[in-house]
Design brief:
The protein is an alpha+beta fold and 143 residues long. It is built from five helices and four strands, in the order αααβαββαβ. A four-stranded antiparallel sheet has the order 2-3-1-4. The longest helix has 14 residues. The two termini are 16 Å apart. The mean pLDDT is 94.
């Protein structure tokens, strides 16, 4: 699929707010709503748009502590690590990465004690480096 500047504008608008109506997107990119709808459907069927997202304010949900954890797997226990992580409800993402660590996770907790407990529980599977998140820098998505 060939992507043109209008497709990129549509993607930018949807990246900023995936709940926009096709009519709203159409107004922002100066195209008709049916044309935008067709382009979005093509990008979805091609797999360019994988899913639509939701950003949760975990502080307002009662889990104000967020951290990034680098995990280096011990003794090849990749499957056990993955099964353990998949059971947790407080994991925002878990990526397999290159470098000194094997995985990068983002988690949220209600208390520092919960974060400490997580690190203790994961110890049989991996060595960890934990970095607590103080704030987020707003960024604009431009494709």
């Amino acid at each position: 699929m060939k992507i043109d500047m209008i497709d990129r504008q549509i993607l930018n608008e949807l990246a900023l707010d995936s709940r926009l109506s096709m009519r709203s997107v159409a107004k922002r990119v100066n195209l008709s709503a049916p044309s935008v709808t067709e382009r979005v459907r093509q990008m979805e069927s091609y797999g360019l748009i994988k899913r639509y997202g939701l950003k949760i304010n975990y502080e307002k949900l009662g889990s104000p502590i967020e951290c990034l954890v680098e995990a280096t797997i011990k003794e090849g226990r990749y499957d056990r690590f993955k099964k353990y992580i998949q059971q947790l409800s407080n994991v925002d993402f878990c990526y397999r990465i290159s470098g000194d660590s094997c995985f990068m996770l983002k988690l949220h907790f209600q208390t520092f004690q919960e974060a400490e407990f997580f690190i203790e529980q994961i110890h049989p599977y991996a060595h960890t480096v934990t970095r607590f998140i103080f704030s987020e820098v707003d960024t604009q998505v431009t494709l």
